[in-house]
Amino acid sequence: MIAILVGPPGSGKGTQAKVLTARFGIPQISTGDMLRAAKQAGTLDPRYRAIMDAGGLVPDEAMIELIDKRIDADDCKNGFLLDGFPRTVPQAEALEGLLARRSLTIDAVLQLDVPRDLLEERLIHRRTDKRSGQIYHLVYNPPPPDAELEHRADDRPEAVGKRLDAYEAMTSALLPYYETKGLLRRLDGVGPPEEVTGRVLLALDRANPVAT
Ligand code: AMP
Fold first, then answer.
1. 190 in contact with ligand 1, CB cutoff 6 A
2. DSSP characters for 108-160?
3. What are the extents of the domains in the chain?
4. Through-space distance between the first and last CA atoms of the chain, rounded to whole angstroms
5. From CA 170, how far away is CA 158, in angstroms rounded?
6. Which residue's CA is the nearest one to ligand 1's atom 15?
């Protein structure tokens, strides 16, 4: 199964991706995670690092190259779940080309809808425990006292508004692109994570009844 999760920063994409990968036995390919890992390892081009910290978008060519290499890995042979890619129409077109060359197609594009004020509130209070990768919300899901908390540079208030604006600009072209192809499934992303998962699974059943 090849599916794409689309949603603004803070919409719960990462959380839903983890549930789906466990259920379908496919990897989650998160370009944001890949870039952060490269940043941590000191292998990320400093220009891309500055773009990320400011909440901008890394150039399409760099992202496409990253995905082109990643989907040839062994763990992708039963499919994969894309999280955070594609973000632009050129990335979506390139993805189609990459898949076509491997005789693969996309099963569904799942879009998580969450109102903007709720996204801002979630992002500004989001913290990650560096040791476990576990994500917390300072108010609604507080971390344990011994957590080693990290506040992502791009979750700081000055970058959050910019990321949400960039997301809105991006979806104005990307979502109609997938809607025209009949691949887009719009889902309500508000509510407990398990409820959102239920909606996601329902949408996938409809998209690909044989896969489940
Ligand atoms: P994310 O965790 O998906 O919000 O990604 C964090 C940051 O990585 C974004 O704000 C961008 O700077 C960069 N990034 C991740 N995926 C992409 C992509 N597909 N295209 C361009 N930039 C990306």
1. no
2. EEEEEE--HHHHHHHHHTEEEETTT--EEETTTBPPPTT--EE--GGGSHHHH
3. 2-115+175-207
4. 10
5. 19
6. 32
160 C-beta closer than 6 A to ligand 1: no
Residue carrying structure tokens 């920063």: 9
State if residue 7 touches ligand 1 by the CB under 6 angstroms criterion.
no
Cα(101)–Cα(25) distance, integer angstroms = 23
pLDDT classification of 60: cutoffs 50, 70, 90 = very high
pLDDT at position 207, please?
Answer: 60
Going by their DSSP bridges, the two strands 2-6 and 80-83 should be labelled as: parallel
135/122 Cα distance (integer angstroms): 11
Q: For the purposes of burial, counting CB atoms within 10 Å of the CB of 178, is it exposed (0-12), middle (13-18) or buried (19 or more)?
A: buried
Tell me, in angstroms, the distance from the centre of ligand 1 to residue 139's CA.
26
How far is residue 162's CA from residue 116's CA, in Å, rounded to a whole number? 12
Nearest one of 128, 136, 106 to 32, comparing CA atoms:
128
Ligand 1 atom with the smallest distance to the CA of 33 is 2
pTM equals 0.83
Q: Which atom of ligand 1 is nearest to the CA of 154?
A: 10
Q: Does domain 2-115+175-207 have CATH number 3.90.940.10?
A: no
| Residues whose CB is less than 8 angstroms from the CB of residue 33 and which lie 6 or more positions away in sequence, other chains included | 14, 83, 84
